[in-house]
Amino acid sequence: MKITVMTPDDRFVTLDVDPDESVENVKALLEVETNVSLHQQQLHFNGKEMRNSDRLSAIGVGDGDMVMMVPQAARASSAELTLNTDGSAVNPASFRHHVRRDSQLITQLLQNDPPMAQAILGDDLNELQSILRERHRLRNELQRKQEEELALMYADPFDVEAQKKIEASIRQKGIDENWEAALEHNPEAFARVVMLYVDMEVNGVPLKAFVDSGAQSTIISKSCAERCGLLRLLDQRYKGIAVGVGQSEIIGRIHVAPIKIGHVFYHCSFTVLDAPNMEFLFGLDMLRKHQCIIDLKENVLRVGGGEVSVPFLQEKDIPSHIRDEERYSKQASLGPGSVPESSGAQEKTLDISTKNQSSGTPTNDRTQDADFEAKVNKLVELGFDRASATQALRLFNGNEDKAAAFLFGG
After folding, report:
1. Are 14 and 2 within 8 A, CB to CB?
2. Is 235 a catalytic residue?
């Protein structure tokens, strides 16, 4: 490891030493480098004098640490350059002055530790002290971890608790290495992903449309449909319940209405939900129908095979009150089985509603039937929630096998 020694004449000497090297041997190396006799040297680390018999690792000296050297005759003034037990400088102004005078060290700090360099070159001594304390804390934490790892290396191999700690240490080391690799090769993974929105007009009313290829159905909220003047076209025969991560009431369907993307008008159908937190979601059904291409390289949505291209909105252009759609769409959009992420499940849910209305058999009577309840319990034991299991059995008139296949996405 490398340590830096600050000499009384404000020079910095870098030594490459073994962690278990004795202080006396370090002084011998310094005698060669500085021409200061071993017996005239006094070394300080973290405000304490280093005895000749001490080992560097035993007193906490680690890679990159700084040690102060003063001649025996100059002990009275050494306090100005020493550090307190918490890592802060005893005399921060003097410490800063001495470091400033070493242009080579300042250059190294600017490259390897910009915050420390800025604190040394700045005028805020409190900031300098805070950084020195933080560096000291980090060194102590690193030393503690190294000591724990060393203790685990020599632990009893038949000690179950020790082996668990070793396993946890190895796993954490892998996680840390993976995190460091991600910071280097994939820093975008730690940034917030902005969802895809485009400007559209629905029946002449401008909207910010949430483009979601994971939702099989295009969805509009009741309040948004009313604002667009489309509620008069609502077909309430298609009532139902969208079940998944959450539940939303399907109040009907609007079979066709004009939407404008770019300068071109297209026909679109909507499922209307009683979902105040979600305005308009452009789903996979209409993306397929109008041959849309989500071009992330150019950051545009191409419609009609490319006849129209509209840019995806930047985060600053998306009103904050509609950003909740990113979360709510996972609950409101309808998907296969019981997971509401696409409209296939929506149509199946609608079928449930239609059958319940046309069969004349009260839903409550079937739910109370003991045989029906037993089938529901079996599906629940397979891992499905009770609401989804009940709806699936109703959809297939109590056929347990078909209901299970439906819930599994078959």
Report:
1. yes
2. no
